[in-house]
Each structure stands twice: as C-alpha cells, then as structure tokens.
Amino acid sequence: MSCDKKEWMQYLRTENDYMTFLLEGFHVPETNQNESDDEYLLDVPNKKPRFTKNRNEPAESIDELQEREKIVKNKLEQRKATKGKSKNALTKADRRRMKLEKLEKVQKMQSLKKIMTNEVLKQDQVAKDRKVNHGDEIQKNNEKKSKVFNKEGKLFFSKVEIEGEVKNKNKGKDTNPQANLHKLKSQKKKIRELIESGEKSKAKDEKQKMLWESAFQKTEGIKVKDNEEILKKTIKKRKDIKKKSKEKWNERKKKVADKQAAQQKKREDNINKRKTDKQKSNLKKAIKKGRTF
C-alpha cells in the first residue's frame, strides 16, 4: 500500500462518520437478521438470454437462425423509418425556407423594377414635354416670322395681323381657276382696248385700280390668283385629273359589266347542264323499263 496504516484508519473513520450522518438524516430503518430479503425483491420475468454469439459463427439450430433474422429485420426497419422521417422533415423545411427566400427575392426585384420603370417613364415624359414645348415655341416663332417677313427678311404687309380683327373662315377659298382666268383676261382686254383707243390715262387708272384691289385682298388674307400661266397650268392639271378619273371609272364599269356577264353565263351554263343531266337520267330510266323512243 502506498499510504500508512494510521492514515488508512483515519480515512475509514471519516467515511463511516459520513455514512452514519446520511443514514440518520434519511431515517433508514435498521435491518432485522431474522427476516428474509426475498419479499423486498421485485418479481422480474425470466428473460431469455440475449444473443451474444459472434455474427460470423454459424447458427446451432433453426430457432437461433430465425431469431437472428428477426433481429436483423427489426434493425433494418428501424433504420429505414428513422432515416426516412428525418430526411423528409429536413427536406420539407429546407424547401419551404428556400421557397420563401425565393419569393422574397422575386418580390423585391419586381418592386425595384416597377420603381425603375416608373422613374424612366417619368423622365421620358418630362423630356418629351420639354421637347414638344420647345418645338412648339420655335414653330410659333417661325410662323410669326414667316407670316410677317418674306425670304429676304423684309416686312410683308399682306400678312400683318391686326388685333381685334375677326377673321373670315371662307377667305382665300376661291378655287375656280377658269373663272379667275376669264376675269383676268377680261381686265387685260379692257386695258388693251383703252390703250388702243388712245385713252392712256383711263387705262393707267384701271391698272392702278386693279393693283389696289389685289393689295387690299392680300391684306384681308385672300390669296390673289392673278398669274395667267399658273392659272392655265392648274386648269390643265385639273382637266388631266378629270380625264384620268373618268378613264378609271369607265374601266371599273367595264369590269363590273364583264363580271356580271360572266356570272350570268355561268348560271345559264349550270341551268342547261342540269336540264341535260335530267334528260339523260330520264332516258336511262326509260330504257331500263323497256321503253323505246
């Protein structure tokens, strides 16, 4: 022994004192030597001894082999049950978590996309409005300039607008070049006749009167058509347009008539065919019945 006898005795005494203290504290009754200990023991059923042989050793009997098989099957079933449950539970939780995360990401992306598109649309609209307003201002300025000034930059009196003046909507709608040409020719003829007769002052006054009349018409916004060549060209152009439209109309009428004639012919042919087919069928039936013609 590593320790001394006195030390060992001292250790045993301390342990004894500690045990007596515990027994007194928990009120453990003293044992009676005459009483048997069997009545205090629990009834334990007789269990078969667990199989403790090595797996590699062969079974001694069929019962032992069946017992081994049952044990292995039970173990496998337990493993499968526990494994499947844990895996399924984990996968479901993971899937649910992943699905929620994905939904959150998609919602965030959609909200960001909406915000960005709205911002872009707003900026585009603002830019368009600015562009339109700027373009309208430029156009208005150009229109004002073009109305008042000619190409050389000089003031064009016929286009000066007077405030408070009521504009007539039907002004400048003289669209009969034939009448304008006839009027112009008659005026020129009158002036020429006055010059030929020797009344040059009257011819001059008439010419001045014509010029003043055209000037007043221009100030009122009426388009004066006093150019003989342009009037002749417009008359010729209108005649050509009328001629072309007339030709087109005649061609269309001809096409419609031809189509109607073709349809009528087809109808008549179909009627005649039906008649001949009916006659042939009647003839065949009569021949079958023994009739002769």
Automatic annotation (TrEMBL):
Q: Name one GO biological process term.
A: ribosomal small subunit biogenesis
Does the keyword Nucleus belong to this entry?
Answer: yes
Per the record, its GO cellular-component terms are: nucleolus
From start to end residue, where is composition biased (Basic residues)? 182-191, 235-256, 281-293
Q: Where is the composition biased (Basic and acidic residues)?
A: 65-80, 192-208, 265-280
Q: Which residue stretches belong to region Disordered?
A: 47-104, 126-145, 168-208, 235-293
Molecular function (GO) terms for this protein are: DNA binding; RNA binding
Which is a Pfam family this sequence falls into?
SURF6
Which key words are in the record?
A: Nucleus
Q: Where in the cell is it found?
A: Nucleus
User: Ranges for the Ribosomal RNA-processing protein 14/surfeit locus protein 6 C-terminal domain?
Assistant: 99-282
What family does this chain come from, according to its entry? Belongs to the SURF6 family.
What is this protein's record name? Answer: Ribosomal RNA-processing protein 14/surfeit locus protein 6 C-terminal domain-containing protein
